[in-house]
């Protein structure tokens, strides 16, 4: 069995071009430019790469970009004040709170303060509730992670069978983190077919290997790199690696003063070759398309302010 490695580059470029072209059209017609703010913290290992990348891509798409890079001593009250400032700012249509936050800050409480019309990741409690219960029809923006998975599945023409087992493996801290846990549950409600079963399992569980061996689709969200063993996997499993970890930095071949991040997920791609039928790897898989989808949601927010939706 040859493993199919699904890369997100083609979808990323297509979505980005669609967003950029539509912004150019709208700015020309309405003489207004969409505004987006990224609020983040400098302490996460990947922040020195992620934050500039978010800013660069958003500016290239045609957004006016604002940023707030905070220190780990920022209080909840200061966060509330900052959110309120951008809620009231008509030049800002979209507010992105980059994760993770320092441990003393509750991400759900802070995201709940963001105007639901401007919270474009789909993490606002009102939005997640509608994702879980579609009948209430209050979803403003599709959540980026499950949307990215579905678009990659569609591009790769993947189809799933009745009664397949979907297993989500999360670190302790992700299960105890209310936001992460709710994002996984909400995302699962979007991507897992109704005639399949799903399980969320703690990575530290003594039953981890048993659940991995049962999984037809295995989704890994972990800060531990490449720990999934090939012997744990069912032949033909579909693997979705979600969390990006910075393992080291190496000098660029073109300029030794420039460091290149080496990023890995929970699975070593080479080790599962000819065992997994499909893998969305880290790097290059799901996370490649998440930011363009986020900018597409930001475009929707801008169009809402122009009363175009």
Please provide a written account of the structure.
- There is one protein chain.
- With 309 residues, the chain is of the alpha/beta class.
- It folds into two domains: 30-120, 3-Layer(aba) Sandwich (Rossmann fold); 144-289, Rossmann fold (3-Layer(aba) Sandwich), CATH 3.40.50.
- The chain contains ten helices and eleven strands.
- The radius of gyration is 20 Å and the shape is globular.
List the main descriptive attributes of the protein structure presented here.
alpha/beta, 10 helices, 3-stranded parallel sheet, 309 residues, Rossmann fold, globular, 2 domains
Summarize the structure.
This protein is an alpha/beta fold and 309 residues long. Helix content is 39%, strand content 18%.
What is the strand and helix layout of this fold?
Blueprint lengths: L3 E2 L3 H22 L4 E7 L5 H15 L2 E7 L5 H12 L6 E4 L9 H7 L11 H8 L11 H12 L9 E6 L1 H5 L1 H14 L5 E6 L5 H7 L2 E5 L16 E4 L3 E7 L7 E6 L13 E3 L5 H20 L4
Parallel strand pairs: 1-11, 2-3, 2-4, 5-6, 5-7, 7-8, 8-11
Antiparallel strand pairs: 9-10
Helix pairs in contact: 1-10, 5-8, 6-8, 6-10
Q: What's the architecture of the largest domain, going by CATH?
A: 3-Layer(aba) Sandwich
User: What number of structural domains do the residues give?
Assistant: 2
How many helices? The count is 10
Beta-strand fraction estimate:
15-25%
Q: Report the major sheet.
A: 6 strands, parallel
For this structure, the CATH topology of the largest domain is Rossmann fold
CATH superfamily of the largest domain: NAD(P)-binding Rossmann-like Domain
Give the class from helix and strand content and strand pairing: alpha/beta
Order of helices and strands: EHEHEHEHHHEHHEHEEEEEH
Low-confidence spans = none
Distance between the termini: 46 Å
The whole-angstrom Rg is: 20 Å
């Amino acid at each position: 069995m040859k493993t199919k490695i699904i890369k997100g580059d083609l979808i990323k470029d297509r979505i980005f071009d669609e967003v950029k072209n539509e912004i150019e059209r709208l700015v020309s017609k309405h003489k207004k430019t969409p505004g987006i703010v990224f609020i983040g913290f400098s302490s996460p290992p990947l922040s020195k790469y992620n934050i500039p990348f978010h800013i660069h891509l958003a500016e290239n798409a045609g957004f006016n970009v604002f940023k707030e890079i905070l220190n780990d001593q920022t209080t909840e009250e200061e966060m509330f004040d900052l959110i309120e400032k951008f809620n009231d700012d008509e030049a800002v249509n979209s507010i992105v709170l980059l994760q993770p936050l320092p441990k003393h800050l509750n991400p759900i409480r802070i995201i709940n303060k963001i105007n639901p019309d401007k919270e474009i990741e789909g993490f606002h409690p009102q939005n997640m509730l509608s994702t879980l219960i579609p009948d209430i029809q209050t979803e403003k923006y599709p959540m980026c992670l499950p949307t990215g998975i579905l678009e990659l599945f569609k591009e790769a023409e993947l189809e799933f069978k009745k009664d397949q087992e979907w297993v989500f493996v999360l670190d302790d801290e992700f299960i105890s983190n209310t936001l992460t846990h709710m994002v996984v549950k909400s995302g699962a409600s979007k991507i897992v077919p109704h005639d399949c079963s799903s399980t969320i399992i703690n990575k530290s569980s003594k039953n981890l290997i048993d659940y991995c061996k049962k999984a037809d689709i295995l989704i890994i969200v972990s800060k531990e790199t490449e720990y999934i063993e090939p012997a744990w996997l069912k032949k033909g499993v579909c693997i979705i690696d979600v969390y990006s970890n910075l393992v080291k930095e190496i000098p660029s071949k073109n300029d030794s003063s420039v460091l290149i991040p080496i990023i890995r997920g929970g699975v070593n791609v080479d080790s599962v070759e000819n065992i997994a039928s499909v893998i969305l790897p880290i790097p290059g898989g799901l996370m490649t398309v998440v930011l363009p989808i986020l900018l597409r949601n930001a475009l929707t927010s801008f169009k809402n302010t122009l009363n175009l939706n």
